[in-house]
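Just curious: can you write whichever protein you like plus the matching structure tokens?

***
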Amino acid sequence: MSNNKNDEGFTSSPTISSNTLFHFTDGENLISILKEGFKPHLCMEDLNFFLTDEPTEEDAEELQHAIPMICFCDIPLSQSKNHMSTYGNYGIGLNKDWGKRNSISPVLYAYKKSKITSVIQQILINFPNDILWYDLYCIFCFTKAYEGRKEKEGRFSDEIIRFYDEREWRYVPPIEDFHDCCLYKREYLDKSHRRYIQDRLDKMPLNFEASDIKYIIVSSEEKIIHIIDEIEKMDRFDKNDKKLLYSRIISAKQINEDF
């Protein structure tokens, strides 16, 4: 069997990742993304796996932070059925090169007492927090528990999820733009303060061109006409862009049946 080589000269073989970054959502959010780009949203992350000992309830909440982000995955469409069932049967897939140009990065999965968490604990012990705060917080923003509890509206359920299976890539706004937008749990649960921060994040969109889009996913064939009508009304795309986007539309039903 012969191996093919890609444009960079590396031998290619079947992989478990995709060259596309997918973001799954619902229908209204998909239309908003196509119109206005991606807007970061606050997502609560539980970082207690960085602690060596079992934390008190107060300490545990100190490491539950809402971080502004946009989440993607590089799961191939043939393996994305479970992911869509969790996050929505609408989505957009963009070229991974676009993601790299915009500093979208795969998250670092870790667990309590893993080597990486031990190293970070030693850094916290040996250096005053204010010296390396920005650097460490960047690490926290791109680190996720290998397994953990599912969260909704700031509350963590008892259900354990293997987050590692999500193959997450993450966009986080530049830290100089958002350092005061990362909220402790008590701040996140204050709906008026959360809305104030979200209004600020709405003004920091992550943009793309029509040529960056590889897939537009809708729930069923019946929704294809609707999404075409919505794209037709968008001023940000010219006539040729719109023709290109129409060719990128595929339904979740097709994916489930044919991939």
Observations:
- The chain has one domain: 18-258.
